[in-house]
Amino acid sequence: MATNIHPTAVVESDAELGNGVSVGPHSFIESGAIIGDNTQIASSVWISGYARIGKDNKILHGAAIGGPPQDLKFDGEETTLEVGDRNVIREYVTMNRGTHASGKTVVGSDSLFMAYVHVAHDCRVGDHVVLANSTNMAGHVEIEDWVIIGGIVPIHQFCRIGAHAIVGAGARIVQDVPPYALLGGDPTRVAGINIIGLQRRGFPEKTIATLKEAYKLIYRSKLNNTQAIEAIREKLPISPEIENLIQFIKTSERGIVK
Known about the structure:
The protein has two domains: 4-143, UDP N-Acetylglucosamine Acyltransferase, domain 1 (3 Solenoid), CATH 2.160.10; 198-250, Udp N-acetylglucosamine O-acyltransferase, C-terminal domain (Udp N-acetylglucosamine O-acyltransferase, Domain 2, Up-down Bundle). Helix content is 17%, strand content 26%. It contains four helices and 27 strands.
């Protein structure tokens, strides 16, 4: 299938467009950009020459993809933004490329980025993620697979959000969010585990029940994190999900949300 480029769009000569790519009115694609097959680019989209975009993505009006980092330490080094397949990137989303710290910003596949989402330099976003309107990531944030984040959520630099967590709208993330967590409120707090999300994704009820007990030890006992981990290992059956939770907490550098 041939590419379809609107007469008012500008695609520089060294940009690489796959089969079936469409480019809407007044969009601008710089030399060096790589765009995979069947990706649809709407009107007034800017894609830098440092963007590497996979297949079957939809990029809507006004998005800016692969721009330079908003980091005063950035000195023009050669870095990239890497985007996977089948993502929907809505109006006015901004995604910046990396810095010398890691060399790249990485976005996975099958995710939805609603209007005005910002993905900053050196971030890592997994697969099957939903970021609602005006979620704003600072640099070096890591969001694991199957995370859902409500609207107008700021995320502090270097924070991690674990797999299958759900964050309510308006929460303020300044520490790591453990996997499977249900988080929200004002002030922001962990309210339990994401039971509905885990059920929808086919987690066994036994696994969900064990995670619920683990969260009680972490959040409702008087134990510190080290003691809670010891209690989990002593009292609960160890599964891949429990081991994932333990390792996330043990490797947290900013501490977990309490």
